[in-house]
Amino acid sequence: MKSRALVAAVIGGVLLGACGGSSGSDESVEGESVTVEMYDNRFQYTEIRIPLGGTVDWLGSGRNPHNSVAADGSWSTEDVFESLEQLEGDSAVLRYDDAGEYVFFCTFHGNAQGDGMAGVLIVEEGG
Ligand SMILES: [Cu+2]
User: Other CB atoms closer than 10 Å to residue 61's CB: what's the count?
Assistant: First the structure.
């Protein structure tokens, strides 16, 4: 088990390296219903854009428990998952009906200042 985890970690490192250039803008996604995997220990996307009424499926995809919580306290995956500990395969779909720009973070691996496991969700008003 231990060596297997190590191999997975090495492969992950290679894949990350292959992606190259951490310009900061290559981790963004846009859509009406977006899935964001919560890895160990980072979000798949750090900038997410959805229209008003759009959804985000916050999906556990690591060995550690994760969650996504708005820094301003306006929403949390706990609202629908009823726990802050989402493990691999645990899904929490949230619908956003208030436009705004929300800093979000994982309470275990980030903070409300946007450090560590964190990102920005932008809910855009329709035209
Ligand atoms: Cu986390």
Answer: 19
Which range of residues forms the domain containing residue 41? 24-124
Q: Is residue 2 part of a domain?
A: no
Position 81 in a domain: yes
Count structural domains, the chain. Answer: 1
* Half-sphere CA count of 31, side-chain side, radius 13 A: 10
pTM for the predicted model, two decimal places: 0.79
Q: Residue 93 maps to which CATH number? A: 2.60.40.420
Question: What distance in angstroms lies between residue 18's CA and the mean position of ligand 1's atoms?
Answer: 23
Instruction: Please tell me the distance between residue 73's alpha carbon and the centre of ligand 1 in angstroms.
Output: 17
Distance CA 52, CA 104 (A): 17
Model pLDDT for residues 21-80, shown as the tens digit of each residue = 444 446 999 999 999 999 999 999 999 999 999 999 999 999 999 999 999 999 999 999
CA of 127 to the centre of ligand 1 (A): 34
